[in-house]
Specification:
2 domains; Phosphorylase Kinase, domain 1; about 350 residues; 11 helices; five-stranded antiparallel β-sheet; Aminoglycoside 3'-phosphotransferase, Chain: A, domain 2; alpha+beta
Length: about 350
């Protein structure tokens, strides 16, 4: 098994890239890395003889099968979604040569002044994605996946990170809210769902933005990707602007024939899916930290607590979670050294 950071894998990656490009002098430099095992490498600008900048995706077969990525890329491209072009592929070795979409992601260029323009373009791509019929056999954002997501929060964030063991009353509170969140997700109209449709997975190119990290698409609730876009894991906006962008997405979704409910119900669905997603991400970030040694994610945990603080007061049905947050979670967070 070749880990992407091992010398053997580095040698194999460089040799493959040189053969794929026909440039024996080509050198690679790290472009980005996934939370998984995929990594991305750019032909160094100073590499002599490189006709154009390209990206090598390294997906070690024993750790991260590249075939789901390729299948979803083709599905999205057929539906008109802007995705990276594949120039050369070697599925057995786990290497792809891709067009270079540039350095910064949307997360790195978006700001308060240009956000409306960038999000309008992102909605363009999202509506194209949601218009694609999920293929037969595609995974579903169903009971099993929702139960797994709920378990991440309790196992990794509450127990491992905060050291909390919930008593019966606290467990009942959390279980009640998790059940309500799951029922809400399962009751929504189902469409093709990216599950991480957020600015760091969008590249600001024309036409575009280009959509990245789509290999985990499922058949899922219609509000999920919209709330992921505007309530990002790494970038926060004032709630009033988020509500406005959700209303704009809803307006355009209705016009495009996407099966969204009336606006008031859609707002509720988006809020509740946001809460479900925020709890899941807290669990994932804690797991990345403690199990995988990836320490850059967990410092963003306060962002998700702030999201919960914004939304929970709107919904009486979610107050048991607000009570748990105040009684147990916030005091435990305060005990963790900064």
């Amino acid at each position: 098994m070749s880990h992407p950071e091992s010398p053997d894998r580095a040698d194999a990656r460089l040799n493959w890239a040189r053969a794929a490009t026909g440039d024996e002098g080509l050198q690679l430099q790290r472009a980005s890395v996934d939370a998984g095992f995929r990594s991305y490498w750019r032909a160094a600008p100073e590499a002599a003889g490189t006709p154009a900048s390209v990206i090598v995706m390294d997906s070690p077969p024993a750790l991260e099968d590249v075939r789901p990525w390729l299948r979803l890329r083709e599905l999205l491209e057929r539906g008109g979604v802007r995705v990276p072009r594949v120039l050369v592929e070697d599925v057995e070795a786990g290497f792809l040569l891709l067009e270079d979409l540039g350095g910064p992601t949307l997360a790195q260029v978006i700001d308060a002044d240009n956000a409306d323009t960038h999000f309008e373009a992102a909605i363009d791509q999202l509506l194209k994605l949601q218009a694609i019929a999920p293929p037969e056999g595609m995974g579903e954002f169903g009971e099993a996946l929702l139960q797994r997501d709920a378990g991440l929060f309790e196992e990794w964030f509450l127990r491992r990170h905060l050291g909390l063991e919930l008593d019966c009353d606290d467990s009942d509170r959390l279980e009640l809210v998790q059940r309500r969140l799951m029922d809400n997700a399962l009751a929504q109209a189902q469409v093709l769902t990216h599950r991480d449709f957020m600015p760091r997975n969008l590249m600001p190119v024309q036409p575009g933005p280009a959509v990245l990290d789509f290999q985990d698409c499922v058949r899922g609730p219609v509000a999920y990707d919209a709330v992921s876009l505007f309530k990002d894991a790494f970038l926060s906006w004032p709630l009033q602007r988020v509500d406005g962008w959700l209303a704009r997405y809803h307006e355009r979704a209705v016009a495009a024939g996407v099966p969204v409910p009336p606006l008031a119900r859609f707002r509720r669905d988006a809020d509740w899916l946001g809460v479900q997603r925020h709890l899941k991400i807290l669990g994932i970030f804690a797991r990345l930290h403690y199990r995988d040694g990836k320490t850059k994610y967990l410092p963003d945990a306060p962002r998700f607590i702030a999201y919960l603080d914004e939304v929970l007061p709107r919904h009486a049905e979610l107050q048991p979670l607000a009570e748990l947050l105040d009684a147990r979670i916030r005091p435990a967070l305060a005990r963790i050294p900064a």
